[in-house]
Amino acid sequence: MSNTSKSERARPYAGESRATREAARRERLIAAAISVFGTTGYRDATVGGVCEVAGLNKRYFYESFATLEDLLCAVYEVVVADLRRAVLAAEGNDPVTVVRGFIDGFLRWVQDNPVESRVHLFEVLGVSARVDELYRGHARSVGDELCDRLVPTIPGLEPTPGQRRFVGDALVGAGIQIAVDWVLSEQQPPREELLAELDGVLGSLLQLL
Amino acid sequence: MSNTSKSERARPYAGESRATREAARRERLIAAAISVFGTTGYRDATVGGVCEVAGLNKRYFYESFATLEDLLCAVYEVVVADLRRAVLAAEGNDPVTVVRGFIDGFLRWVQDNPVESRVHLFEVLGVSARVDELYRGHARSVGDELCDRLVPTIPGLEPTPGQRRFVGDALVGAGIQIAVDWVLSEQQPPREELLAELDGVLGSLLQLL
DNA sequence: GCAAACTGGTACGGCTTCGTACCAGAAAGG
DNA sequence: CCTTTCTGGTACGAAGCCGTACCAGTTTGC
């Protein structure tokens, strides 16, 4: 019996190689899944539903993913990379600017990406140990990066790794909670007002120094 | 047709009135659900599964709840009441004590209640708009209470409602993130060490003042 | 006792999703 | 062309859960 595996007699189709077509389908599935998970919600999502939105046969789902959870993980990687870019975009040489830039970037991203933000703020949570692990890794990574930017702005500070983890978690956790609260609020104050409140808090903190 | 509704010809059974029996069954369902949601997870939970653990016929589920989500809400109210007691147990007249007591109470509760904490930290998230609303309400409430205790310990501070909300969210969010990170790292390091790190951070903050 | 209410166990139809298979038509290659 | 691969649409069995109904045995009120 000769090798009859799928990749054996691969041919171009519509001018694209097999690998290119597979990758394109994978991207379409991920894009469709972001839409479905971010609107209907992951809990009510089905393989068939995602494929319908993607305009692909169910067969092609299993070509790229084994389970819906695998697709969720791929979706999350895309979403979190985008968020990471947003919250770490700002530069700053003093603590207030760093923290303010982080929160501002977060709220901006949530506002500009309502679907993706629902995926990140709600849908990926509590799905499975594996997804939780992913989530924790990225949260820690962003927290570490924030610490890296924050610590040098405060001379004479040499936190232990454990303290850095504490500060990173606290910053990320605070940002998430503020974002979640903002999203779930019935009447959302404009982002600018929220940031003005933040400035007030940070100002009071500085005044105490 | 005479009234044949269930409550019409109610009789005591095993010495208990109908209302008492119904309430007892409800409690058993809630207790079973905490166990199921906190171990198997809400996502994989079924009505039949919860009833089996509770040792009750499925019929009695629908006697007290219309959907599994209703039961989750009831479960959450029980769990959050317990957590609330834990995180607000400590007294304190200075900011460091208040914050430390909050974090300490949170971690203690997580450590002593692994099942309930999984429900609160993971399972209730991203279920539905209704559950999210519940979650947000309790988080805000705890944040407000923390603010109420924190603000008087810092003389000359009169935060606006918006600023109070900011601080409350930040505290609660930081606490949750720290707890989640701790749980996902299998509670390493031990709670005492983690609190020592917190003391270090708070100490550095004070030193800056 | 005896009828009526209650309990716990089992059973069943209906529904939804999964994962795969089949089929007809388009595109590629010799 | 004519065969082979690829695509998209439809179909189908298997499985799990829902919500309800039925049934046998117990407890209660009269």
Note the main attributes of this structure.
mainly alpha, DNA-binding, DNA-binding (chains A, B), disordered N terminus, Arc Repressor Mutant, subunit A, transcription cis-regulatory region binding (chains A, B), 71% helix, homodimer
Descriptive account of the structure:
The structure is a homodimer of 209-residue chains. Chain A has 209 residues and is mostly helical. Chain A has 2 domains: 2-65, Orthogonal Bundle (Arc Repressor Mutant, subunit A), CATH 1.10.10; 72-207, Tetracycline Repressor, domain 2 (Orthogonal Bundle), CATH 1.10.357. In chain A, 71% of the residues lie in helices and 0% in strands. Chain A contains 9 helices and no strands. Chain A has helices at 18-39, 47-54, 58-64, 68-87, 95-112, 114-123, 129-150, 161-184, 191-208. In chain A, helix 1 (18-39) packs across helix 3, helix 1 (18-39) packs across helix 6 (114-123) and helix 4 runs parallel beside helix 7. The longest helix of chain A has 24 residues, at 161-184. Chain A is elongated. Chain A starts with 17 loop residues before the first helix and ends with a helix. Mean pLDDT of chain A is 91; it is low at 1-7. At the A-B interface, helix 7, helix 8 and helix 9 of A face helix 7, helix 8 and helix 9 of B. The first copy, chain A, binds a DNA duplex (30 and 30 nucleotides) through residues 9-14, 18, 21, 46-48, 55-60, 62. Chains A, B: GO terms for molecular function: DNA-binding transcription factor activity; transcription cis-regulatory region binding. Chains A, B: Pfam families: TetR_N (PF00440). Chains A, B: Keywords: DNA-binding. Chains A, B: Residues 23-83 form the HTH tetR-type domain. Chains A, B: It comes from Flexivirga endophytica.
